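Because discrete structure vocabularies remain unfamiliar, we reproduce here a specimen of the format, pairing a chain with its fold in token form:
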Amino acid sequence: MTNPDFQARLENVRLFLCDVDGILTDTSVWMGGVDELKRFHIQDGLGLRLLQREGIKVGWISNRPSFATVARANDLKIDFLQQNHDGNKVNGVNEILKQTGID
């Protein structure tokens, strides 16, 4: 049974932002050879796609640029991806908020 209060609050959500490493991955990074490898959990991807199906935009913010992150973001059709070297994820959040017009 769905809680009506929860459902009403969820209707106000327009954007979901999160980090990548350690949040959407198991924190492992395999390096060597041509590409870096990361292990993403399939259920996280499903959850993000379900949010998008409900009209909620999804964005990832990471301080660690990675080809594997770009590949997974493309696979899931993630709406926003900020990979910054500056060590300040707030800048990435602010850039996405600026793009969306959400305050």
In short: The domain at 13-100 is CATH 3.40.50.1000 (Rossmann fold).
